[in-house]
């Protein structure tokens, strides 16, 4: 079918970091009839196939059409996974509502003319087409011929329009329309019924194949092993279903309590009234009357101010002050007007309103922005319901592996048909052929991949909580870890170290803390006492730890009449208005008034570089930058203070002050120096990771110089390594974007020492701030990979930039771990291959791992367990593959004689040897020391494939020799059966019931091959249970070691016991042992490194390619140079060859 432009339009439907292509289809009756007939004739097999591949279902039942005509849409993700989902287009009927007269005319249905609802209504039917994708509703916009998200206020609204359109509330009719179109304001997570979870689990292709295999074995009377596998499968499925049900219940309980909150809503016609929060719609006007309230939606504050606890979203239980959206006549959308700082006006769903402050116009008011799953909390819940798919070669390779074994099985099937075709009925030939097919593909391979993970998760439980077990294997491949600084590498709290006051544009003598003499009264003391966002809750001062330490240094107290001094010449200070701190602006200020005086004061604190830019330059000391560097280079956190006397006159409303106007022409007061100590565990962990050749990168919101110093102190930057500071600037006027490379001043010229990183030598590190990172990604993207392979410090990074950085590292084929305290790291924690949150707040729910230890010791612990789990998974897969092929070879040889192994022989190999080996092999614990290299991450790799191929060759040679040699013995008889029976391939289920049946089992060939294959299985299990360097030695796994010894003892007893009852029961006569030395050679890391060097093999990882290229580039790294954006090319492409020109 030809594609129409509308059908293949690329739209961003799913807001979980991936784009989705959407295609329109129309159902056809005759196609549906044919498909239904196919379902019946195939006994449901076609239906099962369509369940696995929804796109085939759509292609079979429907024809392509434009999105406008479609009744089914097919969604395809544009990431590497290309996953398909189908959605039915449904209709919302608005004609059922009692709408006001005139709704059927061409006029807008809702008052907000910009609303997508007006453009989506089909008139005069009053119907709206919609689809629901990952809990978000999209409606068809007839004007642009696209599906548009509904459930939010349009971002195009200006500050003025939000105040005027929605400030008085919606009409009752408009509320009803929006309720029907947007759906209820509830984050509903259903507790999935057990039968649904069960069906989803057992319809997995692996279980379907297993069911086919077991049916075949049961039909052949192979009951014991089949029952054992069935019991194990039931336990496995039961545990999985139980875990999924528990997770579903936990998530349901987490969100359910916020779905039914009583709120006060104002409407235009009916005034204010209480209603249940599930009836809220975007545009509603909420009244915040001072009571504690858990917010049921996202809302923008338009009047009054609030103090909220955003711990649920950020992981930090620090009260945050929210200010009203300014009423300004700006044409810019309200978010753009507030820049990246729009969050200071927004009350997020799931956060708790602790206090509200009314204005003269009445209680605090807010306009509902987003409802249901469109909210901040809804987004968090959706990220848990629909996690980012794990892209790991292991799982893709396992599938290819099973396909490869299936191909071998098909050859076996053809061979069996050729051998048996002239010796028995067709049913027997088919049965034998299928038996050999299933022998080659052990049904336990996919399950075996999870055993190592299950045991690792159980060991991790004491220290690290995991919500995504499949990521444990990926942790074994991590080669780069990003760390947040404050609260992760350093202690959570800051200690006040000293204050350096400034007077007459000169720094004065430092006042150190703690001090016997109190800080004298003056503007500096006034700034420390009032320029903060602290609040008194339950008679306790709460707020940002930095603010708290600063305020405690003044020895003042906070009272709800205003802040009071202890022994100072002023009675107290009233804080009248606050311009809150934000990471985007890097400053905060307050308007205050001394009690009993008419004059108003403005105090500011923030990043020194920012604060000094707002001050009159004649008040800033000449040696400001030098003094600042003195302290930041020692790892201190430095905050600048400034002051301005405001002449506002009497009875002025300070809440209407323009921030830009108020924050200008300030007097510089001095520097506040705070100490942020490294956690004692930080240095040893960074050293351990470096020894294991795992890169450590710091990603922080703090000052660049402080971050570089902490990185040096922590050992991320080795002594003697150069630090190159990168400063990038956006285009200004006619000047293009520029990037400057400057050597940090504390780097000495004679740095001879080199540090080794993953086989590449490197004695320099790049450091930059978030602003420079943003400019580089926008204007110098071709330089980004070169910078990232040696960048160690990223300072002043916003949460969005942290996520972007993790993604860019992943593009360079790094396996990235992210460790943060959850505060502003949520996005990066979700984006990384392994995100480890040190916070146990609800925000960490989105992180795959949550550490119970509040320091970075959890990182090497997780990597150790990941490596052990990965190696264990590989070992079990290798073992099961060989076990299948050992049985396959033995069975194929016996089929040549029209014979087969006996049931009890299969039973001992399958249950007593293989099943127990698979269950206990992964119990070996992780090796305590991290090796300086990672385990192989691919199943289809030369060492592993060669290991299997050589073992299979050895098995074929050994079993063929045994098979042929036994025929040369003087005592050899063709068949051991009594009398001259006709040999037919009677099913093994009849073993022992007739001598004819016994003749297919009881033979010298069988008796030779069975001991050889059994001993082979035991030896292979021993060889593949390799210990060092990723797991402890095999003898530390007591259960497995004892088991192997017992298995060997039982086998040897059966071979040499010479007890007729045993032999007749086992169906063996009497007769012979081997070692696989090739594996000792194949698993030798140093040997493979020599082979790689001999053949000139080099890693294909992007970061390794860049490292090799940069090593041979004499012009890299640039030092004390400046480059400009090239105007000639617009493309953003990573150029593999770098010309050092003015780029």
UniProtKB/TrEMBL annotation:
GO MF: ATP binding; ATP hydrolysis activity; ATPase-coupled monoatomic cation transmembrane transporter activity; metal ion binding; P-type ion transporter activity; polyamine transmembrane transporter activity
Localization in the cell: Membrane
EC code(s) of this entry: 7.2.2.-
PANTHER family documented for this protein: CATION-TRANSPORTING ATPASE 13A5-RELATED, CATION-TRANSPORTING ATPASE-RELATED
CDD domains assigned to the protein according to its UniProt record, in alphabetical order: P-type_ATPase_cation
One GO CC term, this protein: late endosome membrane
PROSITE patterns per the UniProt record, alphabetical: ATPASE_E1_E2
Record domain P-type ATPase A: where: 260-384
Record field: catalytic activity: ATP + H2O = ADP + phosphate + H(+)
Keywords: ATP-binding, Magnesium, Membrane, Metal-binding, Nucleotide-binding, Translocase, Transmembrane, Transmembrane helix
Pfam family, one: E1-E2_ATPase
Record GO biological process: intracellular calcium ion homeostasis
Bilayer disposition of the protein: Multi-pass membrane protein
Cross-referenced InterPro entries: ATPase_P-typ_cation-transptr_N, ATPase_P-typ_cyto_dom_N, ATPase_P-typ_P_site, ATPase_P-typ_TM_dom_sf, ATPase_P-typ_transduc_dom_A_sf, ATPase_P-type_domA, HAD-like_sf, HAD_sf
Predominant place of localization: membrane
Family: Belongs to the cation transport ATPase (P-type) (TC 3.A.3) family. Type V subfamily.
Entry's transmembrane regions: 30-52, 202-219, 225-244, 401-423, 429-455, 880-898, 904-923, 944-965, 1008-1025, 1037-1057
Domain Cation-transporting P-type ATPase N-terminal: 163-212
Protein name, per record: Cation-transporting ATPase
P5B-type ATPase N-terminal domain boundaries: 19-141
Broadest EC class assigned to this enzyme: translocase
């Amino acid at each position: 079918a030809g594609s129409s432009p509308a059908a293949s339009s690329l739209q961003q439907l799913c807001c979980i970091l991936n784009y989705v292509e959407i295609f329109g289809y129309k159902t056809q009756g005759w196609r549906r009839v044919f498909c239904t007939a196919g379902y019946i004739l195939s006994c449901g097999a076609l239906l099962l196939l369509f369940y696995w591949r929804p796109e085939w279902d759509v292609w079979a039942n429907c024809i392509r059409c434009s999105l406008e005509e479609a009744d089914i849409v097919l969604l395809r993700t544009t990431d590497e996974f290309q996953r398909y989902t189908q959605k039915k287009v449904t209709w919302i009927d608005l004609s059922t509502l009692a709408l006001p007269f005139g709704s059927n005319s061409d006029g807008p249905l809702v008052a907000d003319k910009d609303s997508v609802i007006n453009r989506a209504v089909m008139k005069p039917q009053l119907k709206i087409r919609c689809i629901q994708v990952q809990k978000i509703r999209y409606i068809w916009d007839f004007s642009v011929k696209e599906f548009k998200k509904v459930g939010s206020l349009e971002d195009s609204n200006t500050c003025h329009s939000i105040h005027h359109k929605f400030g008085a509330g919606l009409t009752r009719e408009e509320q009803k329309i929006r309720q029907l179109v947007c759906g209820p304001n509830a984050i509903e997570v259903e507790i999935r019924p057990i039968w649904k979870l069960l069906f989803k689990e057992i319809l997995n292709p692996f279980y379907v194949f297993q069911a086919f295999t077991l049916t075949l074995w049961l039909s052949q009377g192979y009951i014991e092993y089949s029952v054992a596998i069935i019991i194990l499968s039931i336990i496995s499925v039961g545990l999985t279903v139980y875990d999924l049900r528990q997770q579903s219940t936990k998530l349901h309980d987490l969100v359910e309590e916020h779905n039914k909150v009583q709120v006060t809503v104002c409407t235009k016609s009916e005034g204010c009234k209480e209603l249940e929060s599930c009836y809220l719609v975007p545009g509603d006007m909420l009244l915040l009357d001072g009571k504690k309230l858990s917010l049921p939606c996202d809302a923008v504050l338009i009047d009054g101010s609030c103090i909220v606890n955003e711990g649920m979203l950020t992981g930090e239980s620090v009260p945050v002050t929210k200010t009203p959206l300014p009423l300004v006549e700006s044409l810019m959308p309200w978010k753009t007007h507030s820049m990246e700082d729009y969050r200071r006006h927004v009350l997020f769903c799931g956060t708790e309103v602790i206090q509200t402050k009314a204005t003269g116009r009445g209680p605090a008011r807010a306009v509902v922005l987003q409802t249901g799953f469109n909210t901040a909390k809804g987004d968090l819940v959706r990220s848990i319901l629909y996690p980012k798919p794990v892209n790991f070669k292991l799982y893709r390779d396992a599938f290819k592996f099973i396909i490869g074994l299936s191909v071998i099985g098909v050859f076996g099937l053809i061979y069996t048909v050729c051998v048996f075709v002239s010796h028995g009925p067709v049913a027997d030939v088919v049965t034998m052929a299928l038996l050999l097919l299933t022998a080659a593909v052990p049904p336990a391979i996919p399950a075996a991949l999870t055993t190592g993970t299950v045991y690792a998760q159980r060991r991790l439980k004491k220290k690290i909580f995991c919500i995504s077990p499949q990521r444990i294997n990926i942790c074994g491949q991590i080669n780069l870890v990003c760390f947040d600084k404050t609260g992760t590498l350093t202690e959570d709290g800051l200690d006040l170290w000293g204050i350096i006051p400034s007077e007459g544009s000169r720094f004065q003598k430092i006042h150190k803390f703690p001090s016997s003499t109190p800080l004298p009264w003056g503007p500096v003391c006034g700034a420390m006492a009032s320029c903060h966002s602290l609040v008194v809750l339950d008679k306790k001062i709460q707020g940002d730890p930095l603010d708290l330490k600063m305020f405690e240094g003044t020895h003042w107290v906070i009272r709800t009449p205003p802040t009071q001094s202890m022994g100072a010449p002023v009675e107290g200070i009233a804080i009248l208005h606050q311009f809150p701190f934000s990471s985007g602006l890097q400053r905060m200020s307050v308007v205050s008034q001394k009690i009993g005086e008419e004059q108003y004061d403005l105090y500011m604190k923030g990043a020194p570089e920012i604060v000094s830019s707002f001050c009159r330059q004649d008040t800033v000391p000449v040696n400001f930058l030098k003094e600042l560097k003195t302290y930041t280079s020692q790892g201190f956190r430095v905050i600048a203070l400034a002051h301005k006397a405001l002449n506002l006159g009497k009875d002025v409303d300070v809440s209407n002050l323009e921030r830009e106007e108020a924050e200008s022409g300030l007097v510089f007061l001095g520097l506040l120096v705070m100490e942020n100590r490294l956690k004692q565990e930080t240095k040893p962990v960074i050293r351990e990771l470096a020894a294991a050749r795992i890169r450590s990168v710091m990603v922080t919101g703090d000052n660049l110089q402080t971050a570089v110093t902490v990185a040096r102190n922590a050992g991320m930057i080795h002594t003697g390594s150069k630090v190159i500071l990168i400063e990038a600037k956006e285009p200004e006027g006619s000047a293009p974007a520029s990037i400057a490379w400057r050597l940090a001043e504390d780097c000495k010229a004679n740095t001879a020492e080199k540090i080794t990183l993953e086989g590449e030598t490197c004695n320099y590190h790049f450091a930059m701030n978030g602003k420079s990172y943003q400019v580089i990604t926008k204007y110098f993207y071709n330089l980004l990979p070169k910078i990232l392979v040696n960048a160690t410090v990223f300072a002043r990074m916003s949460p969005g930039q942290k996520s972007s950085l993790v993604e860019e590292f992943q593009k360079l084929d790094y396996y990235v771990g992210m460790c943060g305290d959850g505060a502003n790291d949520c996005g990066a924690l979700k984006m990384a291959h392994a995100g480890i949150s040190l916070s146990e707040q609800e925000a960490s729910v989105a992180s795959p791992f949550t550490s119970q230890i509040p320091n970075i010791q959890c990182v090497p612990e997780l990597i150790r367990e990941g490596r052990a789990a990965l190696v264990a998974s590989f070992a079990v897969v290798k073992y099961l593959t060989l076990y299948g092929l050992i049985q396959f070879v033995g069975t194929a040889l016996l089929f040549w004689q029209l014979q087969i192994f006996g049931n009890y022989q299969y039973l001992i190999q399958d249950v007593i040897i293989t099943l127990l080996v698979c269950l206990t092999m992964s119990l070996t614990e992780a090796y305590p020391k991290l090796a300086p290299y990672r385990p192989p991450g691919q199943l289809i790799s030369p060492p592993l494939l060669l290991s299997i191929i050589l073992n299979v060759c050895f098995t074929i040679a050994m079993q063929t020799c045994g098979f042929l040699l036994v025929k040369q013995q003087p005592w050899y008889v063709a068949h051991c059966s009594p009398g001259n029976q006709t040999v037919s391939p009677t099913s093994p289920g009849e073993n022992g019931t007739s001598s004819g049946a016994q003749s297919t089992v009881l033979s010298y060939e069988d008796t030779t091959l069975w001991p050889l294959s059994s001993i082979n299985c035991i030896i292979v299990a021993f060889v593949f249970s390799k210990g060092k360097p990723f797991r402890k030695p095999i003898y530390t796994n007591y259960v497995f070691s004892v088991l192997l010894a017992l298995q060997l003892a039982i086998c040897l007893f059966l071979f040499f016991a010479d007890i007729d009852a045993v032999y007749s029961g086992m169906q063996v006569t009497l007769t012979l042992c081997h070692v696989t030395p090739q594996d000792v050679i194949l698993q030798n890391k140093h040997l493979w490194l020599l082979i790689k060097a001999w053949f000139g093999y080099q890693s294909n990882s992007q970061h390794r390619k860049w490292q090799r290229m940069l090593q041979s580039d004499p012009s890299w790294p640039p030092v004390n140079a400046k480059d400009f954006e090239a105007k000639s090319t617009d493309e953003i492409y990573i150029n593999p060859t770098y010309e050092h020109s003015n780029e």
